[in-house]
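Figure-free illustration: sequence to structure, shown twice.
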Amino acid sequence: MSWAYAFLRGMMRVAALPPLGVMRALGGGLGGLAHALDRRHRAIVRANLTESFPEKSAEWINGVARDCYAHLGKVAMELPRLSTLPKSEILARTRVMQPERLERLRRLHGRGQGLFILTGHIGNWEWLNISLSWLVGLSCVVARPIDWEPADRLVNGWRSRPGTEVVPKAASARRVLYYLRKGRMIGILLDQNVDWYDGEWVEFFGRPACTNKGLALLAMRTKAPVIPAWVWRGDDGWFELHLGEDLPLINTGDKTQDLWENTQAYTKALEDVIRAKPAQWFWLHQRWKTKPYHAWPRERA
């Protein structure tokens, strides 16, 4: 065990001692402080919000930006408790908003049918992984490894608590297909920017966003259901687990067009969720960083 990992794990255990409400309040305060001091990312958040909601006032944009920072601070401070709370307490703090859809997931899992869970950095996405895995059954999460190995090891430690397999994003298709044949839920976050060679150009908040096409490729190949899921933090402090309806698979035989249409449908489903509670999405991410063109040198000059 490296000293860095041991230190991080010790810090997590200390941070897990206070009650969840105390840590959440601390996180909101730290998020507010970060909003005041973090000029670079504050500018990214406000620019993303302004271009995504051109009809909104500057006052609304600034308010959502502040709330976004406070929300992310709360998420960060909820993680230590998430990593140590027993299963019973995590499920006791989770309110299932569509119980009939949860029962359908359980039936599919009981029959050994694999399926895809479509989600993003919405609400507390780490709470989604753990609570849904314990409510339904074994799952698999596709995630990009954290650059610092001790931190990556720490994060994967709590992600795998319910028996979840964490699959590195790079070259994950073969392992995903393996776990899908084993009847697992496959969680895929589809709300991040990718390079042009990995994605499809689809509309996201009215602008072209390069979006990973892997989910559409796998769904078209396997015909496995794709079901949106996310966890919001409710006004009363409960975690609200939402399950959307199955997204129809577009399969006309034109692979190029079908790939684009399915990726667009998945992206639109996430956009609809984000629009409902915009402060609970990760607006700090440069979602539109990859451009669908490259300017001539004289244009850049």
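We now fold a second protein in the same way, so the two outputs can be compared directly.
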Amino acid sequence: MINAVILTSEPLTRSILSNFFSSVADFNLIGTYESIAEMITATQGKDVDVVFADAAFVVQGNMLSIMNPYGDKKPLAVVMAKDATWALRCFELTGVVDYVVKPSTAERLFLSLSKVRMQLTLIEAYHAMENPRSMVSDYIFVKVNKKMIRLSLDEILYIESVKDYIKIVTEKKSYLVYNTLTNFTASLPEGKFMRIHRSYTASVSKIDAIEGNTVEIMNVRLPFTKKYMSENPFAGIK
């Protein structure tokens, strides 16, 4: 869910945007405010992803610089104004992802939401690359053919080492990623995945059976090396 707030001195704009957000499933409108001070006070301790704000607040009010209470994660901004000449001044500011001329149509606002979604996805991907263990919720980003793909951890059956790459296998398809099995396994949540062989890491919840030196996942048998016995939840199995 993407948390949004509205910052404008115009009651009609607040009303129109409030009605608009009520029909968008993945955006949660936290509140509407008439001043920067009111907004910051009301949203202390809350996770704000984007602010739809009048241009005067962003440029003359220096809104993006003032919002220090949010720490390292400062909200993105969609700027609104009746005069398009504000656009250039606004786009020079870090954090501004779009500019909307008032009055606007629903189609144009939906385009703004798409830009916000895309920017937030890129930010998440960047943080995932910088620190793999800071994965968001139940998914991870992997780089496939120069594209960052969001992959649900619940989809992963096992990971196989293939020379300088790893093959991430899911029920529907496989992904070839430039990485080592050791590094990628270390980036996964502890307890949910385990190394079963020098060439394989498996999802614990997807293991259907263990027999001798093999592990069965979705009718696929993978080698299970005794070397890793003491490092996994099945250490007592003979």
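Summary for the second example: The two ends are 46 Å apart (CA to CA).
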